[in-house]
Amino acid sequence: MSPKGGVGKTLISVMLSLALTRRGIKVGLLDLDITNPTAHMVLGVDIEKTKPVEDEGIIPPSAHGICFMTIAYYSGEEPLPLRGVEIDDVIKEVLTVTSWKELHVLLLDLPPGLSDEALDILKFLKRAKPIVVTTPDALALNSAKKLLKLLQEGGVKPLGVIENMSSNVASAEVKKLCEAYSVDLIGTIPFDSELRLCLGKVDSLLKTRVAKSIEAVAENVLKKIPP
Fold it and tell me: Which class is domain 9-221?
């Protein structure tokens, strides 16, 4: 989660899904950015040729070993002019009708913001453990602080914080933020200017510096979830 766009939530969601899958974990990835889904672009999924199976619910297709669900299977690249309660209703319907079969982990790629839709998901999924994504940028840190405060007030314990686009080591500001809210820093991901050239090419993505850092995140996530 992140209240701020552009911090890399979608990329991290996809690459964490890949890292966990490579460890033999049965992973589901659900892109819940209803109005602007992009996870399929990072995964290189052709949404015109790949579709879910409808059989007592919607069964997501497999993409690189990940059970992957996105509203883009139905909306294509067309924008969905939805607002507020409409988005909330679509999210709940997708969560309700999607049949994941047997999974060890389900990752949700949420839209940016502190909207009711994002917070309602946490209420709807009682066992959900948010991962807060930020960058060293002052604006992103300020947004992350607001989110952590909101989660704390709502009695929701985050799984951890990930610092993205860092300079190889965690910034003092991010460490201070984690200490202030008693949340673990579960990953520090370096900035990689070549990463954009690999989007949609999973084999290339897995060879990046970011992928190596995500491996450590995957290990930390596995330590924090029940077997």
Answer: alpha beta
